[in-house]
Specification:
The protein is of the alpha/beta class. The strands form three sheets. Strands 3-2-1-12-9-8-6-4 form an eight-stranded parallel β-sheet, with helices on one face. It is built from 14 helices and twelve strands. The termini are far apart. Helix content is 42%, strand content 13%. The longest helix has 25 residues. It has one domain: Divalent-metal-dependent TIM barrel enzymes (TIM Barrel), CATH 3.20.20.150. Helix 8 links the parallel strand 8 and strand 9. The chain binds L-rhamnitol (RNT) and zinc ion.
């Protein structure tokens, strides 16, 4: 079917395809820098293991080892993805020059100047994450540690991250979402569950006492259910993170990562629950398989449902900050990035092509028969033709046409990285 026919078919369902494409191209989606190098960063010894309860598996050749390699790989991705891209950096991706090095509590905006130049040259905004893992000062706790010196170090890292986020927002003229996530928790049954949480709350209070403009910097707290080696207790649980954000309006927003819940819970359903209370929320879109495995985002049911809730709840006007968060080291990393980003774009476009007003009306009228039939019919509507047109209009390759270029890049560049 051609695009024109698809457009007519959607029009009959009450869907304006042109408006959907127009909306989508203005929605920022954050591309996580950490898919390119298995979350290693540049500020610590790359041979040291990843800590904090997260895990990359696989050793596919071609991991980026330097800022230059990582940026070159991101440039390959940018050629292949439609939509409005924002970068998402971790503090561990600071770029040091002339033999200089700074520990995380001493990081400064200048250590991200090269990233600012990178984003400026490509018209991208940038989000930021303090890095509370993979570092000798994890004892193994960070912001919730009972040790004053440890806590002080990580609070100072958080404050430095606020200053860097403010710098990124000002330089790039777009808001910077600054996400606080720690892997703090215990492998086994704790003797004190309250103490670490109180210390974590107080530590975040101190971090957010660093001056910043909430119109430019959006601090969030990301919750989690458990991590590897941290199975029994997580300090920053769902209730903790939501309560923190609720208690600190105008300072902090909640962030939900869809890999961070019990397997039968779905973030798609949590989005409207939170939007009933919070003016703004943030998301990490990932694909958990049995645990927080951070597989590449697919065009699957829950990704579509998350996108549908974002769209239906009016989240595209900036209320919902969308970021990707996954890391697969077992396949070509440029392809992993590209697949996940394109799939999130697809899910958002698919969501924008639903007759949401009709569905709402049918529900309110109690006509569940018609609602079911309509929702099922929409699954086989000519979505692919609209997606192709969206890619075409943005000068990006269609499905089936982008992988050969990545294979070539792998042969020419990635495979030569020993
Ligand atoms: C870990 C969290 C966190 C990290 C990134 C690297 O479970 O999802 O967001 O993935 O900060
Ligand atoms: Zn996450």
């Amino acid at each position: 079917m051609s695009y024109t026919e698809a457009k007519e078919k959607y029009a009959k369902l009450g869907v304006d395809v042109e408006a959907a494409m127009e909306t989508l191209k203005g929605v920022p989606v954050s591309l996580h820098c950490w898919q390119g190098d298995d979350v290693r960063g540049f500020d610590t010894d790359p041979s040291k293991p990843l800590t904090g309860g997260i895990q990359t598996t696989g050793n596919y050749p071609g991991r980026a080892r330097t800022p230059e390699e990582l940026m070159a790989d991101i440039d390959e991705v940018l050629k292949l993805i439609p939509g409005k891209v924002k970068m998402n950096l971790h503090a561990s991706y600071a770029i040091f020059e002339n033999g200089e090095w700074a520990d995380r509590d001493k990081l400064e905006p200048k250590h991200f100047k090269k990233w600012v130049d990178f984003c400026k040259a490509r018209g991208l905004g940038c989000d930021f994450n303090p890095t509370f893992f993979s570092h000798p000062k994890c004892d193994p706790l960070t912001l919730s540690s009972p040790h004053e010196e440890t806590r002080r170090f990580w609070i100072d890292h958080g404050k430095a991250s606020i200053r860097i986020s403010q710098y990124l927002a000002e330089e790039l003229g777009q808001e910077c979402v600054m996400n606080i996530w720690t892997g703090d928790g215990f492998k086994d049954v704790p003797g004190d569950r309250l103490g670490p949480r109180v210390r974590y709350r107080e530590a975040i209070d101190e971090i957010l006492s660093e001056p910043f403009d909430f119109n430019k910097v959006k601090p969030c707290v990301e919750s989690k259910v458990f991590g590897i080696g941290v199975e029994a207790y997580t300090v920053g649980s769902a209730e903790f993170a939501l309560s923190y954000a609720a208690a600190n309006p105008g300072k902090c927003i909640p962030l939900m990562d869809n890999g961070h819940y019990h397997p039968t819970e779905v973030v798609s359903d949590k989005i409207p629950a939170l939007l009933a209370f919070y003016p703004e929320i943030a998301l990490h879109v990932t694909r958990p398989i049995r645990w927080d495995s951070d597989h590449v985002v697919l065009f699957d049911d829950e990704t579509r449902e998350i996108a549908r809730e974002i769209v239906r709840c009016g989240g595209l006007d900036g209320r919902v900050k969308i970021a990707l968060d996954y890391f697969d080291a077992s396949i070509n990393r440029v392809s992993a990035w590209t697949t996940g980003f394109r799939n999130l774009q697809k899910a958002l476009l698919f969501a924008l092509l639903q007759p949401n007003d009709t569905e709402k009306r049918l529900q309110d009228e109690g006509d569940w028969t018609s609602l079911m039939v309509l929702q099922e019919d929409l699954k086989t509507a000519p979505f692919g033709d609209v997606w192709d047109e969206y890619c075409r209009r943005q000068g990006k390759p269609l499905d089936g046409a982008w992988l050969p270029g990545i294979k070539q890049y792998e042969a020419d560049v990635l495979s030569k990285r020993a």
